[in-house]
Hints:
Elements: E1 9-14, H1 19-33, E2 37-44, H2 62-77, E3 81-87, H3 96-99, H4 109-123, E4 127-131, H5 135-138, H6 140-154, E5 162-167, H7 170-182, E6 206-209, H8 214-221, H9 239-246, E7 248-254, H10 265-268
Parallel strand pairs: 1-2, 1-4, 2-3, 4-5
Antiparallel strand pairs: 5-7, 6-7
Amino acid sequence: MTHDNNKLSVLCLFAHPDDEAFGSGGTIAELVQNGHRVTMVCATNGDVGEISDPTLATPENLWQVRQGELCSAMDVIGVADVRFLNYRDSGMPGTPDNENPASLFQSDPAKVEAQVKDLIDELRPDLLFTHDPTGGYGHPDHVTVHERVTATVESMDGDRPHLYYVCFPQKNFRTLWQDMTDNGITPPFAKEMLDEIGSPDDYVTTVRDLGDYVKIKKESLRCHQTQLDPNGPFGQMAPEWINNWMSTEYFYLKQPDNGPAQEDILASLF
């Protein structure tokens, strides 16, 4: 689906505002700064996310605040085309939010896939970024978006976008847990979870050094104020450690189940 002047069309489709930030924010910034056209689509409004400071939002208006936070984050990076599918945040398994009929998890798969197909037909993306099969840590919305996007792309005949899953390798979670523990910080997950969260280390196809984009990536992330607790585990880590952790991004190129193999153009783009 290559476009004029070797400029690419890029579609990012994630579950919540802020999902774009940690795993792909540097790559998105690099694409924008090199003149490629990026569209950011968020499936839910993050209705049941954290509220780091009660002066920022209430449970009733959090969805509106988080929409604004994503738009501000994309302003920092330079993405003008930001869209929402407006599903309700599904929360975690076993919670009432997960059973809410308005939630993404309870949505009709055919309806969601039709929305994804309409986006692909309109934008004709060369690259499509979304969640990996694990959803990072198994969040139902992450997994649902992964499944709906993958099913839609796999149903396409002929030319199709290069589908990249944003990955968080298990080794990174293990390093994160150890570094926090060594520094007297309580990690946001138990040691027993380390074999259950993240992408298998040998799953990743593409590793990208985004050291030059850490500054803008952090500035964009800071726009998601409701989700950033300055007294939380990440807020307690030394800045140089955060910079190092955010300077590398990991992807998996999903090859077509039926059709010719695709070149890893993300690996050779810059």
